[in-house]
Batch of 2 targets.
Target 1
Amino acid sequence: MRGGTTGIEWLVLVGLVAAGVGAVWGLATLAGLPIQYNVRNVLVRWRSSLTTILGIGAVVAVFVVLQAVARGIEASSGNTGDDRNVLVVRRGSQAESGSLVTREHFKTLSYMEEIARNEAGQPLISAEVIMIVSVPRVDGTGEANTLLRGLTARGMELRPQVSLVEGRWFEPGKREIVVAQRLAKRFQGFELGGTVKAGLTRLKVVGHFDAGGSAFDSEAWMDSDECRAIFERDQYSSILLRPRDTNAMTVLTNRIDTDKRLALRAEGEVQYYKGQTVTAAPIKIIAGLLGVAMSIGAVFAAMNTMYASVASRTREVGTLRVIGYSRKSVVVCFLIEGACLAALGGIFGCALARLTDGFSTGTLDFQSFAETVFQFQVTPMLMAKGLLFAVVIGVVGSLLPALRAARIPVISALKSV
Amino acid sequence: MAADPIVQVRDLSKLYRQGDIDVTALNHVSVDIQPAEFVVLMGPSGSGKSTLLHIIAGIDRPTSGDVLVQGINVGNLSESDLATWRNQYVGFVFQSFNLIPVLTAAENVELPLLLTRLDRKSRKEQVQAALELVGLGDRLHHRPDQLSGGQQQRVAIARALVTDPVLIVADEPTGNLDAKSASDVLDILRSLSSRSGKTVIMVTHDPKAAGYGTRSLHLEKGEIVA
């Protein structure tokens, strides 16, 4: 899925760069000045140009990386689930962690005829428990909450995107767990053969799984009923099930949602996880605020460079005006220069940000209050945004210096030293 | 019978404001300049000769009076029309050459042509011809800092004449040159007037340079005195 989207995004990025080059070429032609005039002026003042490029590059890098973090968190939720599955939680609950589903509910749902069955004739339904386990971090910075999911064998059948990469699956009744590989790298005791404390007992890690960048990469799994027993819980957190077909899904969802005796809510598993993106919201807000604050600084940096450029080229501007170039041409000329300078900064910033692509880390999930693991996703679309952001900085920063250059009377400009 | 004047200056005045004082740079000046004349404007500093040159060339505006070049009243043109007019009718030569340092000799000379409808090939041909005319056909790809002062001024002359303007104006073109280079530049200007039929107006302090012109006008305190 990401491969296809990324392909289109690369096309968008290439298209944007081509459009930008075309726009610069067109504007330069309109202004009448050769583009090499702008390029060489940027190169001649290489020290101030480089400072501006580095400054704008740093701003763009921070902007893109913060967006990549938000996107990575969203992607880990958005990439989770199976279109054919339905998740059932208590009515009024927004997340599994705050939901309670009784054993009677599970029994009632298990007998519904709309539920699909596997080759052995067993209904594809899994009653699950979500618990929090505090585990010390590998880097010694204290403990953090991790998600422990209790699920049945059907639960694993319902999640084909999850595959065992090391060891074996847990066996019920043996106090065994299987941990997501990405999570295991971040916590002590999650290594193969390691143990972690859960309630009054210790759980042994017998395998590692890979969940393909989904939200399950932040979980450890064990047997559902064993999990309830360890934590002395009577109830489950949620029920995952698969209806026979789309018609059955509609019927089943309506039935669960409208049955007042059940007091449950049914939602497509994919939709449920897409809705769990609240963790990315504060990061997006921070990215926005930082972006605005840093862009103001970058605009002034670009403005400073362009004012210096105008000041040192006043007589050149006068000469251009004398030989027939209009005020508009002068404005366009300096805007092109500022935009090109900023675009170079943007390319540098995007290249820096791209180095973090795929970097795996974790943050607090504001729904479950457990560590959620995600990967930075510096996508071509984000880089396109970063480039546009840079060009806007360059154009805004160059506008006043460009207008100033155009307004200098020709005679005064010619007399400038 | 004399030809119609190419430049007609009618009752031209220019006042500057310096602090609270009005300074008269030009005081009711009138003069006609014929096609292919090489007119030299002389006079002490502050006499108004450069101001007169700038107003005739359309880079400054008079306080009152008119300047007509080939019948066009330059003072009536809008700012953008004036820029287009300068490109088509006037070639400029400055004392300090005013070449664009980051562009080569050929690119500098091509600058005025980029505002015309000429295609790339025609532009290149005209640039080559202009630079050959000033003896720099082998310096096309040299940047200004790779040329001597005299060569830079010759590039500036090539830039001034590449659009085939009717008027060449030169503001102290030999002021920054050694005697030999100055003589070369003046020879070119005289040749443009006598052989190519261009009207040349030159401001200078140097009586020797004035000897190259066909007519000298002496200004003092904003008036033509001789």
Target 2
Amino acid sequence: MTAPQPSPTVHVVGASDAEESPDERRIQGRSPWVLAWGRLRRDRIAMISLGVIVLIVLIAIFAPVFTLLTGHGPNDQYRLTGLSPQGLPVAPNHEFWLGTDDLGRDILVRIAYGARISLLVGIVATVITVAIGVVVGIAAGYFGGVVDTLLARLVDVVLSVPFLLVAIALVSITGPSLTVVILVIGLFSWASVARIVRGQVLSLREREFVEAARSLGASDTRIMFVDVLPNVLAPVIVYTSLLVPVVILTEATLSFLSLGLPPPTADWGGMISEAVPYYQTSWWFVIFPGAALLITTLAFNLFGDGVRDAFDPRSERLLQQ
Amino acid sequence: MIRFLIRRLALGVVVMWLITVAVFALFFIAPNDVARTLAGRQATPEVVASIQARLGLDQPLWRQYLDFVGNALHGNLGYDYYHGVPVTTIIAAALPITLSLAIGASVIWLLLGVSTGIVSAVKPRSIADRGLTVFALFFYSMPTFLLGLLLLLYLYFYLTLAGYSWFPPGGYVPLSQGVMPWAQHLILPWLTLALVLAATYTRLMRGSMLDVLGEDYIRTARAKGIRESRVIGRHAVRSALTPVVTQFGIDLGQLVGGVVVTETVFSLPGLGKTAIDAIGQQDFPVIIGIVLFASAAVVVANILVDIGYAVLDPRVRLH
């Protein structure tokens, strides 16, 4: 199980040869994608964040290396060395670099394996969310009329359902599992994407190039996905990059409420949940998994902010250079 | 305005109807054998059947749905599977706790978000602005449950160890036992919820204020010699608040999620914790009742926010 690398830059570069904006500058022939990538590359905070994200991805991929280094598996319980005589977790020492948890397991190794879950869910659920949202948004904006009204109401419903309550109810019926967590997040988060895409498509569909495509006999499907879709990609990419940290937080929250992955799977939210009864005696049990989660979401948020700035330099930035 | 109201209410009704269908489909068509669970492992088929009949589980689905909606409309949300307590009683007991948490947190959240946004916008790119930005980003990336635990660790545990027992570790004291004990027990949960949610509002208010401060009428107001504090307070903040009101309506649903987590961390027996506990016991009437009630509350609150918005900004009514 390897976590896919969350690098929107790959999309950006790859997309540049797929479509050219009609209003690109003739002199140098640089597409908006190349310009955006150029701006992103000069953005120091975004590049540092990207470095942190790459590091986390590497930790996730090479999690077994931590097992090799320490000699501890993610679910191995060290009842003699990993627990104090009173049966409490052991503080960081030369054997357990970040200490142990309530069952005498190595927190460092579990954090490394937990990165796999966070990234996997963060990326797969985001892709599902964006895919549903884009299809619904394009359909609503392009067809208009009854389709639009129905889909818009559906979006309203999804947005007004208290997501977490229904999500935990659903998970409790089906039982906790990775698939359910990913589907729950995907099925309840697409509405905002659909809203953004619909707004863009509403104005795009009146443009000449859509009329031209239609007069050439292109089908609705072709117009929607070959002609219109590339033109909404920029806002979608920006939104996607800012959605990943939200999804990672949601997954951690579900796990914290014991509705994420079943134990003994190492998972950051689940680890923090296990630490609750021990926060008074074993700070490391809360602090290290918490720091891993916080650093990850911070890095994704800062990077997403950089991506937004690269595509739309006039937009309001979170952090000024 | 009347037409706007009718349209808005109709939408609310449609949304509620779809939610009941979704909730019903989720809980009544989903494969689970409540009667068997309740009857115990050694129950005879007759016992299981009688329990099914008592709970109405032997009726055809459409009948169950009509009963379910009819009962809900009459304020009857069924009985808890284990103790036979009416779900409405359970909700009524938990509601004051959840409301105390949600309303208190909302007040802190809006005050904090709006005031920091104003401070940021009045002197953009100043040290205060940059500090608040970093602060906002930090809390925006922070999981609610982690913040709750960190507050417990530092403000309750370490502070109490140091001899300052200002903050209790959790639990709920009803308002009837005095405002101070009530507020003291809720201050950490309020901060947990408010700090995470306020982060977005600092940015939102800052952006909105910066837009408004560039408007001509602000220049006019200054040119007329009005004091700067009055220009900001009276002329700018008022119109800058409009997007904040919209966002607040959207975030009410998110508030429900935050409430569930915060109640769990601080062991407050409100609606969220009750729902989580009910899920552990597969006590479906309680879960359904709370999900329906919370959804209805969010829908009604959204309508109220939209009406408030329409009063503030007459242009909205046209759409």
